[in-house]
């Protein structure tokens, strides 16, 4: 792996960790729905390939099927298209093939939303079949099992009634793949700068190919997809000439640097404490916005002040230990030994130790049994990571190859270790104007994109119990942004749940409601 799952700055770069999804072969069954090519009956474009290309199975032509979904008691008919776009180099040679799944409703003046998950190394299946697509499969909540049924059902939280949607699988995820060797792929795809540039071009090419450049346009990104969001928006604005009307960042990873300095900076502990307290309040049935407002106020006030005082005030540690113990529900001896600085993985073992279980950093109230309870540190993977691969992969591959009939026998990566191993952000450290590059994440581009377009609005959403990308980071980032017009142009909302808070019906409904308000503003 590129990054350790046991360090939150590292794990925050993962939408659910960097995993290799099992391959599910396509099945050529005669009862697959009828399909048409390229969504409009047009033949798919062909591009010359080099003899140096890898011997990969060729992507089939785009396929479209008509489907329907019940949304709020109303039937919405739509086209589901599985297709691909080539990524070309400077000489017009295909260097990668990118797969997408698009849902479009016939009619004029429909906005279109582009969706990306993160990782880097995660396919868009999680936003698609978990959060906002027209169909969904249940995964990621307490009690969900990898062997549960993966039959797709209508998604009551879908956004399809107010926007068309295009789910893009980045190179190395889903069925999307590079046609160049690893060394060249690292330069062309597996680094933050190249990643933003080719994905922005994929969005532009889809709009151009489908004659949708005049549509209202939106972007939604989850986790590292949230890191991509501001950068893609700004790059499209200023380099490719396409303006987004709105951006939704789901459990975003915006500022890696905030959690790095654990010896001096109080920020790493400020980011995680409110999430740990939220999980404790939820276990007691006491989680409310009002309660969390008090926790946030303590965290950015007395807590950070006492952390900074250190030995200059001998009573500061006593105050921290007492208050953190009361708020977290943890054993006071454990809190004292940690100095009130609650490290994520230590907490996730401690809180469920008496039950022989582990909590997940992606939702600390989702647990699994600890197979190595007497080991000094956690030896197995995160509880959520190991449970979501089977349901999501089985569901999406069956949908692509059987329901839509886009026949492909390549490997499907819902989460890819390989991309994580190849990923390189070294140039970002070297080329940043402040010498830090990626350490400042995408906050710079977030500010610039909002400044460039006075009508652009941004919605940042988090689950209270997510320790991989804690909500407190986005709260602090938004509060430090200059007011450009109105403060509500960049707003932060939190819901019950974790990284995949949309696995809970009430939280998914709240996300849908907040998104509808954003789309109605432009």
Describe the structure in brief.
With 522 residues, this protein is of the alpha/beta class.
Question: Could you walk me through the main structural features you see in this protein, from its secondary elements to its overall organization?
Answer:
- This protein has 522 residues and is an alpha/beta fold.
- The protein folds into 2 domains: 8-257 and 388-520, 3-Layer(aba) Sandwich (Rossmann fold); 259-382, no CATH class.
- It is 35% helix and 17% strand.
- It is built from 16 helices and 15 strands.
- Strands 1, 2, 3, 4, 5, 8, 9, 10, 11, 14 and 15 form an 11-stranded mixed β-sheet that branches. The protein has a two-stranded antiparallel sheet with strand order 6-7.
- The longest helix is centred in the middle third of the chain and has 21 residues, at 289-309.
- It is globular.
What key attributes describe this structure?
17% strand, single chain, 522 residues, alpha/beta, two-stranded antiparallel ribbon
CATH architectural grouping of the largest domain:
3-Layer(aba) Sandwich
Kindly identify the CATH topology of the largest domain: Rossmann fold
The whole-number mean of residue pLDDT values reads 87
Largest sheet: 11 strands, mixed
By CATH reckoning, the class of the largest domain would read Alpha Beta
The Cα radius of gyration reads: 23 Å
């Amino acid at each position: 792996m590129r990054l350790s799952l046991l360090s939150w700055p590292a794990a925050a770069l993962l939408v659910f960790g960097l995993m290799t999804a099992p391959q599910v072969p396509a099945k050529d069954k005669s009862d697959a729905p009828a399909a048409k090519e390229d969504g409009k009956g047009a033949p798919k474009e062909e591009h010359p390939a080099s003899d140096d290309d890898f011997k990969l199975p060729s992507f089939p032509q785009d396929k479209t099927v008509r489907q329907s979904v019940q949304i709020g008691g109303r039937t919405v008919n739509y086209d589901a298209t599985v297709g691909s776009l080539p990524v070309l180099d400077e000489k017009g040679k295909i260097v990668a093939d990118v797969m997408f799944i698009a849902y479009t409703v016939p009619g004029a003046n429909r906005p279109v939303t582009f969706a990306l998950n993160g990782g880097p190394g995660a396919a868009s299946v999680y936003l698609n079949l978990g959060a906002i697509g027209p169909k969904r499969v249940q995964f990621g909540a307490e009690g969900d099992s990898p062997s549960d049924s993966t039959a797709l059902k209508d998604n009551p939280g879908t956004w399809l009634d107010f926007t068309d949607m295009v789910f893009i699988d980045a190179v190395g995820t889903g069925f999307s793949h590079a046609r160049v060797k690893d060394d060249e792929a690292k330069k062309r795809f597996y680094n933050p700068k190249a990643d933003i540039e080719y994905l922005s071009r994929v969005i532009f090419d889809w709009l151009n190919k489908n004659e949708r450049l005049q549509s209202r346009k939106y972007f939604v990104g989850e986790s590292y997809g949230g890191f991509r969001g501001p950068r893609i928006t700004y790059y499209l604005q200023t380099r490719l000439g396409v303006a987004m009307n709105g951006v939704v960042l789901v459990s975003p990873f915006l500022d890696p640097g905030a959690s790095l300095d654990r010896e001096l900076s109080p920020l790493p502990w400020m980011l995680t404490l409110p999430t740990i307290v939220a999980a404790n309040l939820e276990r007691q049935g006491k989680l409310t916005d009002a309660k969390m407002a008090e926790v946030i106020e303590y965290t950015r006030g007395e807590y950070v002040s006492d952390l900074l005082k250190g030995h200059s005030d001998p009573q500061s540690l006593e105050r921290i230990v007492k208050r953190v113990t009361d708020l977290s529900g943890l054993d006071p001896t454990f809190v004292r030994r940690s100095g009130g600085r609650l490290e994520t993985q230590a907490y996730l073992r401690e809180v469920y130790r008496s039950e022989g279980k582990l909590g997940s950093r992606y939702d600390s109230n989702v647990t699994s049994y600890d197979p190595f309870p007497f080991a000094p540190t956690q030896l197995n993977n995160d509880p959520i990571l190991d449970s979501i691969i089977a349901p999501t992969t089985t569901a999406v591959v069956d949908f692509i190859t059987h329901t839509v009939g886009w026949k492909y026998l390549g490997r499907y990566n819902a989460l890819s270790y390989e991309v994580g191993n190849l990923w390189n952000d070294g140039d970002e450290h070297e080329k940043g104007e402040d010498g830090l590059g990626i350490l400042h994440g995408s906050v710079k581009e977030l500010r610039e994109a909002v400044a460039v377009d006075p009508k652009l609005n941004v919605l940042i959403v988090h689950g209270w119990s997510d320790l991989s990308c804690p909500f407190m980071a986005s709260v602090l980032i938004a509060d430090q942004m200059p007011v450009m017009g109105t403060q509500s142009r960049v707003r932060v909302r939190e819901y019950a749940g974790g990284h995949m808070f949309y696995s809970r019906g009430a939280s998914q409904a709240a996300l849908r409601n907040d998104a509808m308000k954003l789309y109605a503003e432009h």
